[in-house]
């Protein structure tokens, strides 16, 4: 198994894309630290991984809070003495025209999607620089490559993640640490279902209509799964991806091509 001697921390890994990434790493033998905003959910997912013979630690905390982040990384290093892979996956999304977006929605989007990536990457970088090895993979979005209506706040936060990825990759390259981003498309998760509820009201369409319209945008003609994203993340975190850094890879079924 490719990650049998690796410690991996995935933020926002109690559901959706993060959960898919956590399960994939666990199947490849990694010790997986599970994070989320709800302690009981972290414990449940961690226990499910252990029940299948995997190794896992529940690390509850808020990625947008500096003290919380320091405590989370301290718990991991106290337990294992190292960190090999950080996957910055935690994120929030709102659906709203710019003129209807509230100050609170904008600030929360950037607190989690940007500040959280910065805070966690900073802690991971300190560990990995000392180790002279490590992988950071940031989960951005196709909306970090091209702006979409109703998502100006979210797009701005994910464009920021792509820029941060490029800059950090150059800072950490001398230490043997790679930093990359993945840019998923239309992933069929709980978050997507929550978006659809808002879109049906905004556009006065049924959920089935909106699903059909989204489906038509995808050249490969199927919705993306968390497992699709996980395959790319694991590649970038593996030895096979060791000469790749500073990149933001589209994984959108062909929607985004630059």
Describe it:
The protein has eight helices and seven strands; from the N terminus they run E-H-E-H-E-H-E-H-E-H-E-H-H-H-E. The longest helix has 29 residues. The mean pLDDT is 97. It has a seven-stranded parallel beta sheet, sandwiched between helices. Helix 5 links the parallel strand 5 and strand 6. The protein is 49% helix and 13% strand. The chain has a single domain, classed as 3-Layer(aba) Sandwich (Rossmann fold), CATH 3.40.50.720. It has 258 residues and is α/β, with parallel strands linked by helices.
Q: Topology of this structure?
A:
Elements lengths: L6 E4 L5 H12 L3 E4 L4 H13 L3 E4 L7 H15 L4 E4 L14 H29 L2 E6 L12 H21 L4 E8 L5 H14 L3 H11 L8 H12 L10 E4 L7
Parallel strand pairs: 1-2, 1-4, 2-3, 4-5, 5-6, 6-7
Helix pairs in contact: 1-8, 3-4, 4-5
The figure for the number of domains is 1
Question: What portion of the residues fall into strands of 2 or more residues?
Answer: 5-15%
Q: Specify the CATH class.
A: Alpha Beta
Ends distance: 33 Å
Give the C-alpha Rg: 18 Å
Q: Tally the helices.
A: 8
Strand order in space, largest sheet: 3-2-1-4-5-6-7
């Amino acid at each position: 198994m490719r990650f049998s001697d690796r410690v991996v921390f995935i933020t926002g890994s109690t559901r959706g894309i993060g959960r898919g990434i956590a399960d994939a790493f666990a199947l490849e033998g990694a010790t997986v630290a599970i994070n989320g905003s709800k302690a009981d959910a972290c414990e449940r997912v961690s226990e499910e991984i252990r029940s299948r013979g995997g190794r896992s630690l529940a690390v509850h905390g808020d990625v947008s809070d500096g003290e919380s982040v320091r405590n989370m990384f301290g718990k991991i290093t106290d337990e294992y003495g190292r960190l090999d892979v950080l996957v910055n996956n935690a994120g929030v999304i709102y659906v709203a025209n710019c003129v209807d977006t509230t100050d609170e929605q904008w600030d929360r989007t950037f607190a989690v999607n940007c500040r959280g990536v910065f805070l966690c990457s900073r802690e991971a970088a300190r560990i990995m620089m000392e180790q002279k090895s490590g992988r950071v993979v940031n989960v951005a979005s196709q909306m970090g490559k091209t702006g979409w209506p109703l998502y100006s706040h979210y797009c701005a936060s994910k464009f920021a993640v792509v820029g941060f990825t490029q800059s950090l990759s150059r800072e950490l390259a001398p230490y043997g640490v790679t930093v990359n981003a993945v840019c998923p498309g239309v992933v069929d998760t709980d978050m997507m279902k929550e978006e659809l509820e808002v879109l049906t009201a905004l556009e006065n369409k049924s959920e089935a209509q909106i699903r059909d319209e989204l489906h038509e945008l995808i050249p490969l003609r199927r919705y993306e799964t968390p497992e699709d994203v996980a395959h790319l993340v694991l590649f970038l975190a593996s030895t096979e991806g060791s000469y790749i850094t500073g990149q933001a890879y589209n994984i959108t079924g062909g929607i985004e091509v630059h």
